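From the pipeline queue, job 12 of 40. The input is one protein chain; the requested action is below.

Action: predict structure.
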Amino acid sequence: KKSKNMLVHKLLVDLAPPFVTAKSWSIFDGRTGEILFGKCENDRREIASLTKIMTAFVVIQIIRKIKLNAQKTMLQVSKNAATMGGTSAKLKAGDVLTVWDLLHGLMLPSGNDAAICLAEHFG
């Protein structure tokens, strides 16, 4: 098993790093903690997008657990969510959208408004 892991590691290290447009990124070996590839991997970054990924993850876990249909369950956008600053899915107070659409508004344009709407209903 050890020789197989070493072979996989060697294959990965011998490859050219992937093309990534992010300002900073890294790929590391979860077993050893060794960084295999990266660009500006030690730079500090805001974690807002990571928070949105976790919001999506938690909402998906909840809707699976309670067997909600994300494409049929409708939520209304509050004034609080609609007026949230930062990146936006351009939601307006009173808009009614499916959970499915809100998840897309959360992840594609990185909408803070969609994140707050989902958090108000599932948080």
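Job complete. The beta strands are 25-28, 35-39, 74-76, 96-98.
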